[in-house]
Amino acid sequence: MGFVRRSSIMLLFVAGVVFFPATARAILYIDINAPGGRRMPVALPPFVTAAGDAALAAGIPKVLADDLGMTALFEVIPSEAYLEKILPSHFAGKLLSFPDWKLIGAEAVVIGKVEARGDQVTVEMRLYDSTMGKMMAGRRYSGPARHVRLIAHKFANEVLYAFTGVRGIFDTEIAFSARPGKGRDKEIYVVGLDGQDARPITNNRSFNLFPRWSPDGNTLAYTSFRTGVPVVYLRNLRDGTERALVKFGNTKSPGCFSPGGDSLYASVSVDGNSDIYRVRISDAAVEKVVEGWGIEVSPSISPDGKKIAFVSNRGGSPQVYVKDLAASSGERRISHAGGYSTSPSWSPGSDRIAFTSQSGGKFSVYTVNPDGSDQRLLASGDGDSTDPSYSPDGRYVVYTFQKKGYSELRIISADGQWGKRLFSGFSGVGSPAWSPRR
Amino acid sequence: MVRRGHRVQPLATEPGDRLFRKMLGLSGALHAAIFVLGVAWLALSAPPVRITPIAVVDLISGGQFAPQPAEATRKSPTAEARREAPAARTRASTPPAAKRGKEAAPAREVSRQDARAFSERIGKMREERANRAKVQDAVEAIQRENAVRAAVRGIGDRVAHRVDLSAIPPPAKVAVPPRAGGGMPGAPGSARVPPEILAYARALDEKVRANWTVPELAQKDMGGLIVQVRITIEKDGRVSNVRMEKVSGNPYFDDSVRRAIQKASPLPIPPAQLRGGEDHYDVGFRFFGEGWGS
Question: At the top level of CATH, which class does the domain B195-294 belong to?
Answer without folding.
Answer: alpha beta
